[in-house]
Amino acid sequence: VLFGGAAGPGKSHAARWALYRRCLRQPGYEAVLLRRTFPELEKTHLRRMATEGPLIGAEFIESKRLMKFPNGSLIECGHMDDEAGLQKWLSTEYHAIVPDEGSTFDPDRLLELSTRARRLSPDGTEKGKFWVVSNPGGPASSMLLDFFIDHTPDFEKYPRLQGKYDPAQWEYIPALLDDNPYLDEDYDTSLAVLQPWRYDQLRHGDWRVFSGQFFGTFNERRHVRDLGDLGGDTRWFRSLDWGHNKPGCWGWWAILPDGRLYKRSDRKFMGESVQVNAEHLKTKTRELNIAKVTYNVADPSVFIKTGLVGAREARFIGQSIGETFGLNGVTVVRGDNDRYN
């Protein structure tokens, strides 16, 4: 679970008390609560756990950074400041692992850490829990967006995840500023000094804005909509930027009656034959409940014939990628590859 978004809803507080509840309910429950650095851990969690321990009937052992419960449950606290820090947490399996401000972690370390949240709960009802608590922004932010929100992990980077990634196992629970009724009324005003992209991250929990963004005016609240029931006047087309040794992408587009285009979905791929790619295309179109596609537009490069013969006269022979798509039930037309537009 990715829990977060805006700054101020009380995410760190919620993470601690969610673990307290599980530890109190299930004897022998073992969890670990992490921050990227020790100073962050001390300021955010250690001081508060020392005062919260008596409230829940548990003992906080400061020297061990450990909350110990009478029923044998425990919460370890730590950080991942260096490689040694990571290896410490990889040596044991836990019922729950909670990286706080997970977007500040190294993305690959964060994913590797998730593999240790694999113990079945003491009462036998739950698999291991991996809860990332975070605002947008930081080295792992785009990975969290891909895995938890868009459900489009980079299979080029994680090839063995292909066919094994289950979107239902990666859930996002947004946390907004307005969710916290105890927050100071001036908190929103204090964020106004930030640059626009950072303000949108911390005020609105926007995971799609970042520093140096090409489309700096993109705003999820304004440019993303629920298409709902589009009716019979809406037409659909698909767009292709072919790639084999490098990534390629299909896009599914709705042409609304008012002339606007909305990109419903996309599919990134690499290393697939045209035949396999065409089957994936048809399958995903069915999954999107799109009954009819008006046309498919492709990069002009897919119409180049493959193979060369003749030393003096370079004659192209064979079949173009576009023609091969046609033989596999996907007719493509030549697009305009003006990249700016």
Q: Could you name the key traits of this structure?
A:
single chain, 341 residues, alpha/beta, 5-stranded mixed sheet, 27% helix, elongated
Walk me through this protein's architecture.
The protein is an alpha/beta fold and 341 residues long. It contains 10 helices and 16 strands. The protein has helices spanning 11-25, 38-52, 83-90, 107-114, 141-149, 187-190, 196-204, 220-223, 274-287, 321-327, and strands spanning 2-5, 30-35, 59-61, 66-68, 74-79, 96-99, 129-130, 132-134, 172-175, 235-241, 248-255, 261-269, 295-298, 308-309, 315-316, 332-334. The strands form 4 sheets. Strands 3-4-5-2-6-7 form a 6-stranded mixed β-sheet, with helices on both faces. The chain has a 5-stranded mixed β-sheet with strand order 12-11-10-13-16. The longest helix is centred in the N-terminal third of the chain and has 15 residues, at 11-25. The chain is elongated and about 75 Å long. It starts with a strand and ends in a 7-residue tail after the last strand. The mean pLDDT is 89.
